[in-house]
Design goal:
Layout: H1 3-30, H2 37-67
Helix pairs in contact: 1-2
């Protein structure tokens, strides 16, 4: 396995696990009885936004790894 491919596995796994965690919490909260509808909607929207941002950052990180920019601070 190539070194760059190995470096892409960890971010993908972490983003996947965190996304599943946040979405699961949102879904569980949304199905609770006695919770106002607005709170249920927020419980589903916020994890969705967090997941979207995490995936966007993941895509940017994969592009950086492919370019070879493994240490962003090295250019400063």
């Amino acid at each position: 396995m190539k070194t760059k491919t190995k470096k892409m596995i960890a971010p993908v796994i972490i983003v996947t696990l965190i996304s599943i965690y946040y979405i699961a919490i949102g879904v569980i909260f949304a199905y609770m009885n006695g919770v106002p509808m607005l709170a249920k909607i927020i419980a589903l929207v916020v994890p969705g936004i967090i997941t979207g941002v995490a995936v966007t950052v993941l895509v940017q990180r994969i592009k950086e790894i492919k370019k070879g920019e493994e240490d962003d601070l090295s250019k400063y």
